[in-house]
Amino acid sequence: MRLLWIGVILYLLPMGLVLFLKRHPFSYTSTFSRAETPRRERILFIVGKNIMLAFFLTSFFVPLSPTPWIAGIGIVLFIGAYIVTLAGWYTIFRTPRNTLYTTGPYRFSRHPLYVSTLVVFTGMGVASGCIGYLILGLAAGILHARGALQEERVCEGIFGDTYRQFRNRTPRWLGLPGSS
Fold first, then answer.
1. Coil, helix or strand for 20?
2. Residue 97 belongs to what domain range?
């Protein structure tokens, strides 16, 4: 149980710090607050986040019993994804406002925070033996995949050719950068 709370705090800490220190880092690309975002999409977003919260809360009460080596795999997944999360938030923090994120983990993925969120929750679920985290990871992956497509359209509209070049050399989810 303590492992779950430590994982949650570690996961939320860098995001909270960046959002506190660099107010509204996504305001120019956020699809959630844009007027053209359909009401249905905004409602789906809120419902999805509440479902994720419900899974998070119930996961503490639906434990599995992982063997030590399976728990070890979960811890390795969590630590690896957490390092990517830290690097992603650091990149966001140090990149000037209204600039496309193309350094750090954004060299290997157009959406490294989405990928790391999926792996963080999966790793926490495997390490702690809570099936709710595994389901939460899947739910986060589905919600983020949908949001990523919309976000990419917005970024293309804002950054134009710069974004298209970035898109052509950088995988959406994970991989090695292509040639420029």
1. helix
2. 2-169
